[in-house]
Structure formats: structure tokens, C-alpha cells
Amino acid sequence: MIDLRWLTLLLALAWACSPKLATDNSEKGPKMEASDEEPFLIKIAGEPVYAEEFLYVLSKNASFSEGEDSNKEPDIDESFELFVNYKLKVKEAIDRGYHETDDFQEEFNSFKEEITQPYLLENQVQEGEIQKAYARLKEVIKASHILLTFPPDASHDDSLAVFRMAEKIKADAESGEDFALLAMEHSQDPSVVQNKGSLGYFTAMQMVYPFEAAAYSLNIGQVSDPVLTDFGYHIIKLEDRKPNPGEVRVSHLLIRVDTALAGSEEGAKRKINEIHQELSRQPDQWKELVLNFSEDPGTRSNAGLLPWFGVGAIVPEFEKTAFSLSAKGEISPPVKTDYGYHLIRLEETKPVAPYEELAPSLKSRVLRDSRFKQIQSQVLAMQIAKFKVEENTKLYQELEKLVIDGNSQLDSLPIEKRDWLLKYSDKTVTVGQFLDYLQQNPPKPLDVQQGVSAIIDTFIGEKLKEEEEKELLRENSEYRLLVQEFREGILLFNLMNDLVWQKAMEDSVGLERFFEENREDYRWEERVETLMVKVTQDKPEKVEALIDFLKDKDYQNGLNMEIKERFLQDDPLLFTVQENRVEWETHQILKDLNIDQSFHTINQGDVLYLVLIGEKEPARFKNLNEVRGRVIQDYQSYLEESLIVELRDKYKIEVNEREKNNAYQLAHR
Questions:
Q1: Do 325 and 380 have their domain in common?
Q2: Which pLDDT value is given to residue 569?
Q3: Which one of 217, 424, 514, 649 is CB 3.0 to 4.6 Å from 387, fit for a cystine?
């Protein structure tokens, strides 16, 4: 797989795309349409390329190089020649069949899917649901409910009876009857015995979606219409709403109550009060007291520390007390829950995270809960309206009568396969095409249970998504440009990798021949062995001692280690030292020295250099192993230049000078 960062760099050097792409499923991918209204800029082997493509290249390169030299005027002529070279390489890649390989198709389709997603209706609807979830997440609401469930194997009449009962209870609540009493009388939620219908505070993503949507739509004191969920019908009353306080992290000390033992309650209460009094006198004893007395084995060894939690995520009594603490390290009075008695200490708080931070996790949750089905239904409805889908309802009814069991009965269906099932845009989908789809995508048992219409909806969704992508290519220039640039970028990368980059590394015979033919470019000028000490601290006495040690020395191997051991043991930052053989005539420090003199002290600004000069080595040619990396780079440049010469000779290039001048004028604006 191609590294996206490298591909982006490659494309930035020679981006190209077409403003006139037409949807095309042929082997060459999206095609450019010739137009009488827009003359070509260039033609390569008779295939037109338009001026907007060249201007797009310039804008990409300008963005890529922004900040390098903002005062430098771009060389338009050079950019134009590079653009022609780029299009020649793409043409060669296509003629060589790079676009037909499995690797290319996998790479391009992967990029295309990633590029396409943000432009689809599905993404827009998803984004709307994510933003809606985040907006709700910034609030917490308090609500009570009454649940009416359905009897087993409920008939239509049974369901209708439950609905009418729910409507009557709503009317009673709105007439002023106590909602808690109505809950105690009618609700079939098992927890009603303890909470009288009250659900406490909660926020988005904590209730099933229909319940959440209904609750957040209410005003304080308002009672909802019956709300249908998988549990039954709910009547919801909103009691309060307020800003979400975010999350808290607390630690706790727990003393459990064993209801089966007489006196356990009083004993636990007395013990927690004694511990609380001790902490009031010495709050720094928290960790020790938790370790010795807490009866929560999961947190005792970690000073009672609990994970971060928000509203609605923990038992109400504990949550209410935790969120009431305001100062870090503050310890609550004893709190009673079903687990026993707690002391709670505040460790940290944090507000609701910004949208950008929460969006990925919200998206994951949105796509896993019942919102996803709603998104799919909404997208399908929008697509059906957009593409003016016409359905053969009579044929639908006939298909609904059939039981589709895998592939076994597909060929024996008593329906004419040429009959049309769908019409949209300028396309007609037949029964035969639908059956072909079923053969390639056998329906799952759950799909069959939901009926043929659900399977057809999935089929329609896939067809209309394809139509969306084709429309994007026709109508959305931004999308079209992105698809084209990535397609051509991958083709260019593969061509260059095979004919230039990888070839230069693997063609040892060609590399050696190139090196021998260009030996003059790889020479060592006269070099000298040097020991260079760069003094980094201003400590005169130690520096003088170092100078005294070096000034009478001759350069020799091992001196580097000797001066480090002698002078850096007690002061490791006193200096740094380098030992090299360097071309002295072009060296920044050595070029003005008398090389025949052994020892030198050089001041450059605030930096002192101490230099020992060793033996001279005359100028000579480098051998290949000394410069292999540079030779490979030069050979790659040579191969690329040769390729361009070959391609310019191979393909006829026509330039529309008038259009070129117009493009130049637009580029200078």
C-alpha cells in the first residue's frame, strides 16, 4: 500500500485533474469530455487537457510551497513544462496498463471510498445526528415515566388497547393527577416500586433513542404523547433540565451493610461516622484509612479511586453527592446507597469536551444504536426524492408473496425477469437485475423475516449510492478534482517506482556504468585529518589547561578519547569534539588556516574552536561505496530525465498557444 503522506508530497509537485470528467466505467476510468465551449490547452496523443487543470496544478503547488519564499515569483514557463511532463507520465502509465492491475484497483478504490464519504447524503445526515447528540449532551434532564408493555404474542387489537390506555394515562396526568401515583398504579417498569417512575437525571446516549428524542423535546412539566420503544409505550414527564456539569473523578471508602445480619446497619453507620470524624481531623490519612477499612476490594489498594463518570452513569445518591463537591480533596459526609455507606473524596472535574474531541466516539455510538436505522431510512427517502425514483408497486406486491430462501428458488420465481422494478434518473432496473443481486448477496434469515421490501430497500440504497457518486463526478467539481488527482497520483507513483526509483536501487550494472561515465562528479579534493574541539562553556582555567595540553600535540588516533577522559570526567559539558577527514579548502573554519601548522585556536563570535591538523591526503576520485547514496539519487534523476526525453519523442504534443497565454494571465492575477 502507498503511504498517504508520500503520495500527498508527490501530488503536490505535479497535481492534475480534469474539470470535465464524465462518469465512465471503462478500463481507463473517468474520461474528459471535449467541449466546443472550452478549447484545449494541450493535447497528448490526441487526448485533450484543459487550462483549468493546469491552473489547479499551480494553485496546489502554491499552497504546498507557501512560506518557503513568499516574495519569489513562480516561473510559469517552468511550471507548464513540468505539467506537460506530468501528463506524459500519466499517459504512459495508462498505456502500460497500470490502471488495470489489482493493486491499483485496490489502492484507488480505497482512496476513492475515503474521498467520497464526506460528499454523500449519508454523511450529511450522520453529521446532523452527531451534532444533535452533542447538543443534547450539553444538557442533563430529569424525567419520570410510566411504561405499558405488550402481552406475549400481542395481536393488533392488543397493541391498540395498550396505546389507548397510554393515551388515557396521559390525559389523567395532564388533568392534574399526581404522576408518581399514576406510575405506582399503572407502570410495568419493575423499578417503579423503588423510584415511583422517576429516572433521575440523564443525558444523551443513555436512553433508547425514541425515549431520548421525546424527553428532550418536552418543556419542564410537560407530559409526552405515548412513545413507542422496544419495551412498550412510555408516557414521559419532564421535571427539570440544566447544563451538563461534565464529569467528575472521585475516590471512595465503602463500609458494606449485610441486611441478613441483625445490627449490621447500625454497625456500619457507626464505623463510617468514626472514620469520617478521623478524616475531619486528619484528611491526609485518606489513603491509609481506605487501605485499612474500605470494603470495596476493587479500589481499596488504589486509594479508592474510581473511573471518570458523568450524570446518569452511577447510582443517584452517590452521583448527587459526588457532583455536590466543589474543592479538590473535599470529603463528603457519609452517603447511603444499596451497597452500604460511602465517604466520597473529589479528585478532579472536567467540563463536557469540545465537539471536535467527542465527535469520533459519538459517531461510533450513533452508528451502533437505533439512530442508524433512522439515518438509513432518512437517506433512502432523500435519495428517492432526489433521483425521482418510481417503484413498480404491483410487482412489489407479487414479490412480497414469495418466500426467498437463499438461491435455491431464484430461478423458479413465477415473474417475468424483464419487467421493470425501479426507474430513476434515466435508468431502469429489472427484476432480473434484482435477482442477480440476490444471487451475489444471499439474504440473511433476519432480512427474510422483515420481508422482501426490506431486501429491496437495501438493493435500492446501493443503486442510489452508486448514482450519487456518478452525479458527484458530473456536478461537483471539487469532488471530481480530488478523484482525478488521486487516480493520476497513484498511476504516477507506480510508474516512477518501477522505471526510476526502484530501478536505480536494483539495477547494479546500470548504476556502475552511470558512475563510471560520471567519475568527474565524484571527487575528493585535498583533505586533512582533523581533531576539532568546540568549547561550549566559558571556564577560563579549564580552557587554558585544555589548550596547554593540545598545543604541543601532534594529531594521532586515540587522542579524541584521551582528552575526553582527562577533561570531561568532572565537567561533561565543557566541550564537544569531532574527528574527521575534511576537504579543507571549502571548510567553513579550516579554509583560511595555514594547514602546515599543527595547532590552531579560532574564535568565531562567542565560540572557541581548538583544531589539530593531521596528515594531508591528495585529491582523488571517490569509489562507489563512498558515495553510493548520492550516486543512486543522481542515477534516479538521470533515469527520469531520460524517461521524459523518451516520452516527448513517443507522444505527439499539441499546445494551444492562445489558451496557454490566457492561462498565464489568469495565473498572474
A1: no
A2: 85
A3: 424
Give a yes or no: residue 129 inside a domain: yes
Do 613 and 539 sit in the same domain of this protein? yes
- Asked if residue 376 and residue 292 are part of one domain, the reply reads no
Per the model's pLDDT, the better-predicted residue between 395 and 237 turns out to be 237
424 plus 374 within the same structural domain: no
- Domain shared by 143 and 239, yes or no: yes
pLDDT tens, residue by residue, 477-508: 888 888 888 999 999 999 999 999 999 999 99
The burial class, CB within 10 Å (0-12 / 13-18 / 19+), for 399 is buried
Residue 343 forms part of a structural domain: yes
pLDDT of the residue at 453: 72
- What's the mean pLDDT in 301-317? 94
User: In angstroms, what CA-CA distances link 327 with 245, 248, 252, 323, 324?
Assistant: 15, 12, 15, 11, 10
CA distance 204 to 206: 6
Cell of 534: 568546540
What pTM does this model have? 0.62
Grid coordinates given for 609: 574552536
Q: Are 617 and 526 in contact (CB under 8 A)?
A: yes
Question: Positive or negative CA dihedral for 66, 67, 71, 77?
Answer: negative
pLDDT of residue 640: 96
CA distances from 143 to 147, 163, 215, 237, 659 (A): 13, 21, 7, 6, 69
Q: Which domain holds residue 330?
A: 247-350
At residue 195, what is the residue type? N
The CA-atom distances, in angstroms, between 417 and each of 255, 411, 449, 456 are: 73, 10, 24, 15
Indicate the residue among 324, 350, 376 that finishes a domain: 350
Stretch 249-259: mean pLDDT, rounded? 95
Q: Please indicate, yes or no, if residue 319 is contained in any of the structural domains.
A: yes
Q: What is the full DSSP assignment across 269-297?
A: HHHHHHHHHHHHH-GGGHHHHHHHH---T
Measured distance CA(325)–CA(307) in Å, rounded: 16
Same-domain status, 566 and 541: yes
Query: Considering only 85-89, 135-139, 370-374, which range has the smallest mean pLDDT?
Result: 370-374
Any domain includes 109: yes
Describe the crossing of helices 371-386 and 121-137 by its angle, rounded to 10 degrees.
Answer: 140
Q: What is the pLDDT of residue 407?
A: 42
pLDDT in tens, 45-76: 999 998 888 888 788 766 545 544 444 455 78
**Closest by alpha carbon to 140, among 343, 415, 412, 351?**
351
User: Which of 205, 220, 243 is a domain's end point?
Assistant: 243
Strand order in the sheet with 335-337: 309-310, 247-256, 340-350, 335-337
Q: Are residues 143 and 129 in the same domain?
A: no
Distance of alpha carbon 227 from alpha carbon 220, whole angstroms: 17
Do 157 and 239 fall within a single domain? yes
Whether 563 has a pLDDT exceeding 50, the answer reads yes
Tell me the pLDDT band of 21, cut-offs 50, 70 and 90. Answer: very low
pLDDT at 337 over 60: yes
Number of domains in the chain: 5
Q: Which three cell numbers stand for residue 377?
A: 431510512
340 strand-pairing partners: 256, 337
Burial of 36 (0-12, 13-18, 19+ CB in 10 A): exposed
- How much is the average pLDDT of 154-168? 92
pLDDT, tens digit (0-9, with 9 covering 90-100), for 177-203: 999 999 999 999 999 999 999 999 999
